[in-house]
Design a protein that fits this description.
Layout (H helix, E strand, L loop, with lengths): L2 H16 L1 H12 L8 H18 L8 H20 L4
Helix pairs in contact: 1-3, 2-3, 3-4
């Protein structure tokens, strides 16, 4: 990796770490509406993984509000995970 890529990666990691508490809060709020069989740690892990993916793709030139962009993607990642658990779907 060149120095530019290293700096960019560090910025993306810092962005993901900054919004990690918001992701955990989102996972806990979604857990309230779910059955007891769904583990909160799984929701947090899925949400964190999606947050990291979003921080890698985020372009501040296209969208000035990271959380506005990331929140929908993280919620969608959690919903996709929940759909994968459902036997009927």
């Amino acid at each position: 990796m060149n120095p530019y890529e290293i700096t960019l990666r560090q910025h993306q990691d810092a962005l993901a770490l900054e919004y990690l508490p918001a992701v955990k809060s989102l996972a806990y709020r979604m857990k309230i509406r779910l059955p007891a069989s769904v583990d909160i740690d799984d929701l947090i892990a899925i949400a964190t993984e999606e947050l990291i993916k979003v921080s890698r793709r985020y372009d501040p030139k296209q969208n000035d509000n990271f959380w506005g962009y990331a929140k929908q993607r993280v919620q969608g990642g959690i919903l996709d995970y929940l759909r994968s658990l459902d036997v009927v779907s």
